[in-house]
Amino acid sequence: MPYLDHHESRLYYEVHGSGSPVVLLHGVGGNHASWFYQVAAWRADFKVILVDARGFGKSTDAELAGRAEFTNDLVAVLDALDLQRVSFVAQSMGAGTAIDFACRYPDRVASLLIADSLVGITLPESIAVEMAKVQSATRDLSQAERVLGRTHLANSPAMTQLYLQIAGFNRYTIKTLVGVQPSYSPEQIAATGVRIGFVVGEEDVLFPPKIVADVCRHFDGAELMTIAGAGHSAYFEAPDQFNARVANWLQFQE
């Protein structure tokens, strides 16, 4: 099994396909198993690397470090695989790790696609005020209502159940996750020179498209892709749309 012992913990990862390496980083409600649609669609064109963050999926967290070690763990996995430069598709919580990695090791990042997230970005004050309103409005929603859009909830009860069951293999939830990651201003992130894009579900209640668009405008040349009929987990809710648009973006290198 593809495990890496790192300090006192054991990190789980998978590698599928061949081609340019793309690392998929999951959110709090996910783990390596969440990306099955992307593995099937992309393994013919990319080397797809899945990494369970410590305390998620099959990765352990003996040190109880949580987010504080996510980036260091990622470095250890990529070094073990001898991957010197990769692209990231980072959903929700995963964006915090990808952004931290990009700011610390910009030469190792070909592209950074931030999916349904602003985690890891220190928001300009006016946008931060709007995000605080969103967080207040969504605080009492159920987990399904938070992470899946109204279209998916109405039309796909079985897949909704699968989503929640996959999350059930994680040690941590949004309420129990420990550790702190740094965040960076748009200016600090842009200064890395890393190619950046954003994708957001049009029904995302946690990171609404308008707010994501406002942040995207702080990055010159950054592309914003909106996925119709999807919420916070666009990669899972509308995989055909997500896979086609993101793959096209990843394949385009300036």
TrEMBL record:
E.C. number(s) listed in UniProt: 3.-.-.-
InterPro entries cross-referenced by the UniProt entry: AB_hydrolase, AB_hydrolase_1, AB_hydrolase_fold
Keywords, sorted A to Z: Hydrolase
The protein's enzyme class: hydrolase
Superkingdom of origin organism: Bacteria
Gene Ontology molecular function terms on file: hydrolase activity
Domain AB hydrolase-1: 21-239
Cross-referenced SUPFAM superfamilies: alpha/beta-Hydrolases
Keyword Hydrolase: yes
Pfam families in the cross-refs: Abhydrolase_1
Protein's UniProt name: AB hydrolase superfamily protein YdjP
Source organism of this protein record: Pandoraea iniqua
Gene that encodes it: ydjP
